[in-house]
Amino acid sequence: MGIRAPVGGSVLHARQQQAIHDLVESALRRVMADRETAAPPDRAGWVARLSIALMSDADTSHRAVIGAMLSHGIGTAELHDFFIPAAARHLGDLWVRDRASFVEVTVGAGRLQALCRERPSSAARRYDRRVATGKTVLMVVPGFEDHSLGAFVAAAHLRRLGVWVHMGLGLAANDIIDLLHGQRFSVLGLTAATPGTLDRTAELVEALRSRLGHLPTIVVGGRAVTDTMTVAERTGADYAVRTAREAVERCGLTSAAPPVAKITG
Length: 265
Known about the structure:
Blueprint: H1 9-37, H2 43-54, H3 61-71, H4 76-96, H5 102-117, H6 121-128, E1 136-142, H7 149-160, E2 164-171, H8 173-182, E3 187-191, H9 198-211, E4 217-221, H10 228-235, E5 239-241, H11 244-251
Parallel strand pairs: 1-2, 1-3, 3-4, 4-5
Helix pairs in contact: 2-3, 2-4, 2-5, 4-5, 4-7, 5-7
């Protein structure tokens, strides 16, 4: 049996330092894990945590946060009706304030869209049965808009409120006119993600009004709608709204649909 050589003082010190370092790292990991599983003090805290996870390099971080939300009593309906739209707005805020990169916001937006599509089908069928008059909204993201997430969130919410939604992405005035001329819509929804696009939205509304004899109610929605009256007047829309429910209430979607639009010139 061999005899171990004595360990020198410098080697022993290095081992002790490494052991201390490993112990500190382990403690820090436990603290971070506790923070991740502990419930934030309010809804805003959950929104912030979900938004950060949506932009994470890890593909499953946001699902872990959602799992924690559900375990703390947040229901699926509340998740889809409040937290997902709120996270979308928060991502937009981070982008506007230059606190998140284009890539991060794009990744987060893609994951939010996937979550919207994962709404339980049983809930969708339940809301579909509420559609008695065949009301349909044409939800348009104009070609000059860079962001479409808000439109998808609003469309999902409208469907849960019992309204059929037809999505149109990257459309110009001629594209919208073709759709309005060939189909019956109760409301034309236009998204305005930033105040900088309101003037172009106004030009689009003017072009539609000048070429169509009959138009569905025109509604502008999105992050650019900070003051509903001002935005409605500036764009020439019938209404400017902040939420899908407000659009349903303002437009009276339980009434009969307007006649099919006809081109006048």
